[in-house]
Each structure stands twice: as C-alpha cells, then as structure tokens.
Amino acid sequence: MDKRLEFIFRRRSIRKYRPEPVTRKDIRALLEAGMAAPSASNLQPWHFMVITDRSKLRQLSEVHPYGKMLAEAGLAIAVCGDPQVSERYWDQDGAAATENILLACEALDLGAVWLGCHPRPERKAAIRKVLGIPDSIEILSLLSIGHPGEKKPARTQYDGTRIHREEW
Q1: 3-class secondary structure, 88
Q2: What value does the mean pLDDT take over residues 4-19?
Q3: Which of 7, 46, 29 minimizes the C-alpha distance to 145?
Q4: pTM as predicted
Q5: Average pLDDT over residues 51-62
C-alpha cells in the first residue's frame, strides 16, 4: 500500500454514526468536492439534494432497502442528474461526483456509505416521492454521512489477476 494514497485506502463504508450534526461548513466543502469532479464536455449535469431533517432521514431509511443507517446519519446527499443537460453521461458524471464526496468525507473525518439508486426504478420512485424530486431529474445515488461511530482499518483490494497489460 503506497502511503501517499493512504487517504484513499482509509475510505471505507461507514454505517454507524455519532449523534453530532455535520456542520454547514463541512456540507459546503462536500458539495464543492462533488462539483470539482470531472464532467463530460464540462456540462455538469448534476444536482445535489441535501437532507438534514431527521424525519426525512428516517423516511429515506425506510424506503431504501440498504439504507437503515440513514435514520442515525447527520446528513444525506442525493446525487442527481439532468439527462436534458447530458443524456449520455449524466450517470458517469454523477458517479465521479459521488466518489469525490466520499473522498472528501474521509478528509473531513466524516464517515459515509454510497447507497445505489440508479438504475433501480423502485428505489428511484420511493426516493423521488420522499424528496419531491421532479420526474425530469434522475437519481443516481444516496450518500449517508455522519461522524463515524465505527472505525475500520485501511485496506487495499489490489488483485493482480484483474490486471492486463498491452493485451487481454
């Protein structure tokens, strides 16, 4: 494990949180990190919904099949995309923004987990209903974020059998 990249290896899915809220300053930093992601033709088709309301977080925890931790999270961010801005790449741009936010969480000593929504229509419909997201906007991911209530060791998942050089 290259020590220069240790912050990446420390990024783990955190599903338990302490009760203190995520500050406005940290929320702004996370959103700035998301918007610093690469974007095809720099179209930036993303939209970010910030959810801190405890009742909304509880509702989200009930509608996403893997989102139980949202009930205790200090924050959720729904990463969305506008296909009218970038029909072909909204999802890739959103995935890059999602990963930037996850890495920023690590840098800010926050814990987070990526909850997949796209391409599952039932998940998107349920989240759309809770958050009032318009039908014209796609929902890529839901990030559960908070002050970590668990610590996981840094790790690499390097697998040399997945590497191909010059030819398959």
Answers
A1: coil
A2: 95
A3: 29
A4: 0.96
A5: 98
